[in-house]
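Good morning C.,

I know you're traveling, so I'll keep this short. The sequence:
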Amino acid sequence: MDNRASVSTIFGLSAIPLVIVMGVAIEYSRASEAKVRLQAGVDAGVLAGVRAPTAQRSAVATATLQGALAGSSPFFGAVSSSWTTNTDGTFTGNASAAYSTTFLEIANIKTLNLHAAASAAGATSANAVCVLVLDPSSSQTLLVNSGVTISAPKCEIDVASTGSPAAIFNSGDTFNLHRICVAGTNTTQNGGSVPGLTTNCPAPANPYASSLPAVSVGSCTVSNQNYSGTNTLNPGVYCGNFNFNGSGTLSLQPGLYAFKGANWNLNSSWTVSGTGVTFYFADSNSYIQVNSGVAVNLSAPTSGTYANILMFEPNGLSTSSYTINGSAGHVLNGLIYQPSRNITFNSQSNASSEGLTIVVNQLILDTLSWSLAPATGFSITPSGASSSAANERLIR
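The tokens, ready to paste straight into the viewer:
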């Protein structure tokens, strides 16, 4: 009897499970490789996102993930992702993708669902530019008059001017700063040597010239009003002159306040408060004038399009000036980005615990006490410092 046909049949039948096992092994190996690629993309996304301004983190992270996965077909179909800035400033990402199977279709398993997650902490560098004065050539672009106390050991003030003198420091001031960096070599120090002052020290370029949200200002919703007593205002487009007379309270509802040819004149004895507010000044004729005796407590949103932006304007406006007074004290939290403005902060004797990053054209400080830390999401790396990217780290 010829058994060769039977042996061949038995061998063929016994090989089927072996082929299936090998196929499944290859399938899971490829799926594992796809999972590794997805995880690497999320890792890169959170690291790129955490170093971006808060409002742009999700977009930056998504673009980074997509770039990392480019060319990964046929591993993935569509990849979905979500990104979150946490209350402690860390940044978390999650991504999911469906891996299409080949061998596992035999077992009616057509896809494997892949997931990757990661969190990153921001730079741990001890120092950041909290105040940046952009005018490149005028004299006394930073003027610090008597009676100024600034406590900001993890901050520096940077002055881009090479004018003569680029900055003036009068007597009776107290500085607890990491550094005062002046691009020029000529300064005036009327009260003696200023602690931490460094000259011939280039300031960083305008870091937000093209990264802040664009605003399309529509038609006016409120125009030319006089207020007294107790008032609540809502987000909208404000046009014309607004006077806050006598004494009163002003509560601002969360949202965007767009100024179009508008100014608010806040007179003495007013109390102004608002949480989650952003002011956008569309032109050089728009500003908020804060007069003596006004108490202001304003903080930017912590999420959304205008996250951590308190006041800003478009680039390219003509230069203009205004004053923020208020011996009753202010608390301001967020980014103040007004590169065309010459701003005077005056008589804020009780101001404390301000989380501010200020970018202006020129700056005058007069009789005030500040306790500063950089605004969340808007920490400016000093010129000459190593990239903060090296300090960002995965914490998953």
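Safe travels,
E.
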